[in-house]
Amino acid sequence: MAAPDVTDRRAAKAARREGNTVDGIPPLARLFPLGLQHVLAMYAGAVAVPLIVGGALGYSAQDLAFLISADLFVAGIATIIQSVGFWRFGVRLPLMQGVTFAAVGPMIAIGQSEGIQAVFGATIACGLFMILIAPFFSQLLRFFPPIVTGTVILIIGLSLMRVAAGWIVDGSTEGAPPINVAFAFGTLLLIVLIERFAPPALQRVSVLLGLVLGTVAALFVPGMVDWSAVGEADWFAVVTPFHFGLPTFQIASVVSMLIVAIVIMTETTGDMIAVGEIVDKPVNRRQLADGLRADGLGTVIGGIFNTFPYTAFAQNVGLVSLTGVRSRWVATMAGGILVVLGLIPKISAIVEGVPRAVLGGAGIALFGMVAASGIRTLAKVRFNNKNVLIVAVSVGVALLPTVTPTIYDQFPQWFTLIFDSGISAGAITAIVLNLVLNSDEMRRTHGGDAHMGAYDAVRGPAAAALVHPQAEGTGLIPTQALSDEIAAEQGGDGMPVEAPSIDAAERSRDAAATPPHD
């Protein structure tokens, strides 16, 4: 059996031969459906924020339609800037941009007290702030070793499951209707069957095919597909800047949005690192700064064109992982499709008709792949007791607002801005715990500890015996014998001894350049 790094190199060579690289351009016959797949994966999330904010501010159906068109139009432009890049703007990876949910609460509060013009003014200030501090924020990359990045990516996937569940429930206050659950898991089953039995060309668009087939099936169920808005929608609409009036800049509003900017940059950093790991092109500090500048520029354009702050969409990171398509030009095509959707409301209405339950089924696969990518990154980590604790506490803190969304309702707004987002809360927790538990002094003092912590009973000798290769009968063998055997296998330093391979020298060089806790 080939060593893992040999297998990775072979896979990389095969990808280059097929043109499946970050900079490779797939044929147009594949490029369009792959881009459309990204649009369908993000569409519901992309239009949700203008619907929520506009509805809270009491806007008419016509104004809501304009907000949605503006959102799609700017999302396409921001995606093209991020994926194509120019000068020092754009990470040049397959990332999709969309309006962030982190700004929903502050924007509603600003809009209700100061008006929508203050929201757009604060959005422009937020974007300029992100552009200015991007080079300094990128220096934080050293705080994102694999123990942190893997944990953050895992948290992103787990946190997004609430979005998939929300699509399946589709606004019901009494749980998900059984028909919705049936269509969600039917769509998921279709995606799995396509991945298992379809030719490789169709496997690349498995999510798109699942969505299309799920929607076609839903046509036979009365009320599942609502395309009534298609006939009422215009064929063409122009997105004009400052449609609701010139922006105003209120100090309190701007300050609250600057806090949102920090949250956005934290989430985007995790997404960029995640997609870099997935496409085997890890981001460096300069690329990270370029990507954060692109976020800021997209946000500035958003404020000018009557929409809101933009960030990388995590659900599309899962799509990259699921399909294995690495080309950034697929994201560029998706950006072009979004621009067209923003200019042709009738087409937007067609896409909007995809049942939420069908989207929920696809979301289970997409968001699960994000979590799996985090686990893959964590596989690089040497798990001593401290690293186990870092992952455990970070995931626990991140999931609190996911399982109980009202947990921080009685806290100040500045606190909820940070901790209501499980992604930013988990990322901050992982960074702080890594600095505290894996400092140079701690590594020198406790780096060789082989004992199991009290919180780590699941890895204790009794539990290990259940899966020990020499266990017989019930799977239990004498604890002392197992402990001695484990100690021998670990070489006395608490870490497994790697078997030599043909690439041992290369791994030794990598290990020399990597801190023990990474």
TrEMBL record:
Q: Where is the composition biased (Basic and acidic residues)?
A: 504-518
Keyword Transport present in the record's keywords: the answer is yes
State the membrane topology. Multi-pass membrane protein
Which Gene Ontology terms cover its molecular function? xanthine transmembrane transporter activity
Q: Name the domain of life.
A: Bacteria
Q: Which UniProt keywords apply?
A: Cell membrane, Membrane, Transmembrane, Transmembrane helix, Transport
The name of this protein is: Uric acid transporter UacT
Q: Which organism is it from?
A: Microbacterium lemovicicum
